[in-house]
Amino acid sequence: MDKPVTRGAVRRELVGENAPSVRSGDDPALYGSAVLTPLDPVEARSFQTFRLTYTVGKLGIDDTGGIQAAFRFIGDAGKAQITDPSAPNYVTASSTGEGRIVLNVREDGFRPWKLLVTAYQSGGYLKEGDTVDIIFGDTTHGSPGMLMQTFVEAGYEFRVATDVQATGNFLPLAKQFSVPIVAGPPHRWKAVIPSLRRPGEAFQLGLKAEDIWGNPTSQAKGRVRLEPSMPVSGLPEAFEYAPDDRALTIEGLSVATEGILRIKVLVDDVAVAEAGPLVIRDGDVSGYWGDLHGQSGETVGIGTIESYFDFARNKSFLDVTAHQGNDFQINNLFWHRINELSAELDEPGRFVVFPGYEWSGNTAVGGDHNVFFRHEGRQIRRCSHALLEDRSDLDTDCHTLTDLYAALRDEDCVMYAHVGGRYANIHYDHDPRLETAVEVHSAWGTFEWILTDGFKLGRRVGVVCNSDGHKGRPGASFPGSSTFGAYGGLTCFLTDRLDRDAIFEAMRRRHHYGTTGCRMFIDLGVELPESGRLFERDPKAVPDTPSHEVTRAIMGDIVQTGATTAELSLEIHAHAGIERVEVRNGETVLETIRPYGLDDLGDRIRVLWSGAEYRGRGRNTQWRGRAKFAGASVDRLETVNLWNPERLFEQRGSDLILWDTVTTGNYMGFDAWLAPGAAGVLRIATNLGDLQCPLGDIGLEDRVLEAGGLARRLRVFRLPEAPLPRTLRTTRQIDIRPDGDNPIWICVTTEDGYQAWTSPVYIFKG
């Protein structure tokens, strides 16, 4: 087999295809026309220069009228500026007519067109045939050009409009423009397989190369050789890597016997990646990975919904997905298209797609919630019609979360509470028959509080992680260089098959766990010394819910027992070393388990910072700091969770490390390998506080600087010098509190910066 075939029913994105035109219905002869040059593909995060030439139409342009170019606010391209000719993103304008052109740059446009570059006519008028030139990235005076966004897009849009009569009302031109943005050279390789299958059960291997910003790239080539840790039926030994569309999938693979599969990937005889671990085990369930939360350019993101689903299936290699646009931007035509595509692309056994949307009510009336329907053709219940011109169905709106619960009570649907720009207000209302989970991680950051705050309220919900990606990359959502501060998350659904019914049942029973983007295997069980009652639904919501006797519960289960103790069994197989596992009962950490001890520690010092300002939109925390290893030298430095390579994060000299970074609830930091036997003092100074301690006092336990805000802190501890074990198996005795729920769950942290959380097992006495 020389070249594996990429399969998939999703219509491919044409990289050179322009976005659909925005049409105003106005005659170009009256209102003028424009030309943008060049329109050739450009590389992500490159510097470019564009010339927009507008030719005035029959109506002319009156004094203080003008033309305008608008850009999507979700992009992270350099922001146009008119003050420094030698700096990036400098914009100039001129005309052939009388008077002069005055440029204005502002960010107060309407969603999603926030960034506006306007060329106003001043001191005269323009007549038919006059031209106005706007140069984006004018290099005449030393500017390197216009800095493009970090992510691939079939058509980066220049939305051009004109105000010929100086009314302040800019009308879009009939012809619009977009420039294809393509990936850069390969920076890393990714190989993906699932985490749990049964012997003989089919799975697929996904392979791609990404540029430095996480875009799958077509520039990678080479002879690929695969070295599996156990025999895999259908797996080629070697082939030439030349995919049709930036990634490839080898399907129909299987393993006949139980074991742990990892597949080493070599390109031109150089090891570049490893897929796995995949646990092959007889049992009742397999693990299916999904990212059910993101949106495309039809709402506030970028790209088309077709390219969104193509990426999910064929470039991030998901098993389950959904599209979740903001409801107040989903018109009826697009809602029909969402349903049409979800039905077309849903492929039981291979790729499950749910129709749905994001109910985007303000936090005061419940906040953001994802809605997933099992079947197409259901009524969308919006929080409002804020950005919709068609108001014929206003009577279907649900203005509060309570209204939404009432409207969906008889629907076959599931809801998640999540934290985005708006955050879900779990104190406002809760219907456990519908709302089965909370999203503790996304590209917006990490938010354990949305789960733990609910424990006090008696909530019994599961844990999910998704991307809430806006850049068209569900399942592999890098934050780029914008307000997003984290890599998007994934959820593993534990069920016996891959179809809508099975995934929905896993969602309703909370049989799933979430990660910050890796695909580790987790098996968590609670063994009861005497049988207890396992409820198929929350008995507080459905008192007559079916139940049966069990002696073992898994993540997400609700169990009533008379026992005072139970045994927690835990098995983890990760892609990287396991740094720690926290065993928790509600908000209390019962124990921190590490697969190493004091005697294993070496000269590797880990420094991490984390947290957010508060729960709302302005949660980003700036961390500016320096770490001085006085009396020691740093032989090697590795960053942890540095998702934006443009941020300052570097070693200077032999003992100084500097950083200027952002956290949004998540964490980042570094490992410093010191020269053997180093003594001295670590002095850390940050904009949020200082920490100082002798290097000899840094050990297994965290040294912590509390920095206020929301879980905002800096931690220092010591690690073994060698890579950490990637497998952990253990059991622990846990006490069952007599009052209220005992939500038993774990948080896993790997040494390369990923985390995972299981849905709690909810145990209560009775």
- Rg to the nearest angstrom? 27 Å
Oligomeric category: single chain
Distance between the termini: 60 Å
**Which percent bin holds the helix content?**
under 10%
| Strand residue percentage | 35-45%
> Any low-confidence stretches, pLDDT <50, length ≥5?
1-25
What form results from the Cα inertia axes?
A: globular
Give the tally of β-strands: 52
Q: What's the mean pLDDT score?
A: 94
Total count of helical runs of at least 4 residues: 6
Largest sheet: 15 strands, mixed
> Given the helix and strand composition, which structural class is it?
mainly beta
Q: What does it look like?
A:
The protein is mostly beta strands and 766 residues long. 7% of the residues lie in helices and 42% in strands. The strands form nine sheets. It has a 15-stranded mixed β-sheet that branches. Strands 2, 5, 7, 8, 11, 12 and 13 form a seven-stranded mixed β-sheet that branches. Strands 25, 26, 27, 28, 29 and 30 form a six-stranded mixed β-sheet that branches.
Explain the layout of strands and helices.
Blueprint: H1 28-31, E1 33-37, E2 42-43, E3 47-48, E4 50-55, E5 66-72, E6 91-95, E7 100-106, E8 113-122, E9 131-136, E10 146-147, E11 153-163, E12 171-172, E13 177-182, E14 188-192, E15 196-197, E16 203-210, E17 222-228, E18 238-241, E19 247-253, E20 259-267, E21 270-280, E22 286-291, H2 305-314, E23 320-322, H3 332-345, E24 352-354, E25 356-359, E26 369-373, H4 401-408, E27 413-417, E28 435-442, E29 445-446, H5 449-456, E30 462-465, E31 490-495, H6 500-508, E32 512-515, E33 521-535, E34 547-554, E35 558-561, E36 565-573, E37 578-585, E38 588-593, E39 604-612, E40 621-630, E41 634-640, E42 649-652, E43 656-663, E44 667-674, E45 681-686, E46 689-694, E47 703-706, E48 710-719, E49 727-735, E50 741-750, E51 755-758, E52 761-765
Parallel strand pairs: 2-13, 15-21, 22-23, 23-24, 27-28, 28-30, 35-52
Antiparallel strand pairs: 1-4, 3-10, 4-9, 5-8, 5-11, 6-9, 7-8, 11-12, 11-13, 14-16, 16-19, 17-18, 17-20, 20-21, 22-31, 25-26, 26-27, 28-29, 31-32, 32-51, 33-34, 33-35, 33-36, 36-49, 37-38, 37-50, 39-44, 39-48, 40-43, 40-45, 41-44, 42-43, 45-46, 47-48, 50-51, 50-52
